[in-house]
Predict the structure of ABC transporter domain-containing protein.
Amino acid sequence: MACNLVVDGIRVEIGSCKIFDNIEIRVGGGEILAIIGPNGSGKTTLLKCISRTISPVSGEIIVCGRPAREYSNREYSKTVSAMLPQWPSGFSMKSYEIVLMGCRNQSTGVWWEGEKELEVARAALGVLNAMDLYERDFDTLSSGEQRKVLIAKSLAQRTGIILLDEPVAYLDMKHKLEVMTVLRALADMGKTVLVTLHEIDLASKYCENVVVLSEGKVVAAGKPREVITSELLSSVYGVEAVVKWDEEIDYPVIVPKTGRLQRGEISCLM
C-alpha cells in the first residue's frame, strides 16, 4: 500500500544549537526524494527525526495520514525502516544475522529466525548482489560491503516508507548503480523512498524530486532539472561548475572549474 510522508514545519535543537527550523517536505508512494546539500546541513538529522531517533521541538511528521508520535514502536517499525549507518563495532555477527534483525518487526513470537525470515534475508542480500557476504563476519567487511548489508537489513523490514542515509557512500560505480536501481524498482512498486545523497548526478537520474538543505534550511526543491544549476552549486556548495543536461538521456554533466592554490599557501606542508 502506498504511504505518504509529510514533514510539516519541524524545528530541531540539540542543546543550545538549532539544527534546522520550519522544514517542510512531502513525498508520496512511488517516489524517490533525494535530500542533498553540503556536510552539516541537517540531512542526517532530518532522517533521524522521521525515524523517531530524535524528536523535533515543534512541528509534525505525518506518516500515512497519521502523526508519527501516535504510533507504537512496533507499528512504526512495520511502516518506516531507516538505515542510519552508525553500527557498533567490537562484536561479531554474520551478515545474514544483521539482515535478519530487519525481520523482527513482522514476527509474532519469541523465535523469529525461521525459514521464512531466512528467505527474506537471502532475497534482500540477493537483490543487492551481496549473497557472497551472507556468511561473512560483519566486522571483517569493507565499508562499502557493510553499507550493502545495512541496506539489506532495511529492505528486510518490508515497510512502505524507506529512509536511507547516504546509501551509496563507499561504493564503487557499479555498486552505486545497483543500489539506486533497486531503490528505483521499489519506488515503482509503490514504496516511498527518502534518501540523502552527495551524488548529485545519481539524484538527478533516479529521483523524481530533490530537496536542497543548507544551514538547516530548505533553499531549493523541485525536479532535478529545475534545481541542479551552476548558480545552486555556487551558492550552496561554494563550487564553480558548468552544468549541462544531455538531452538524449536527460542526465546532467557537471564539470567543475578547477582552481589552483598559490605555492605560498601550502609551503608549510613541504
Notes: The mean pLDDT is 90. The chain is about 30% helix and 25% strand.
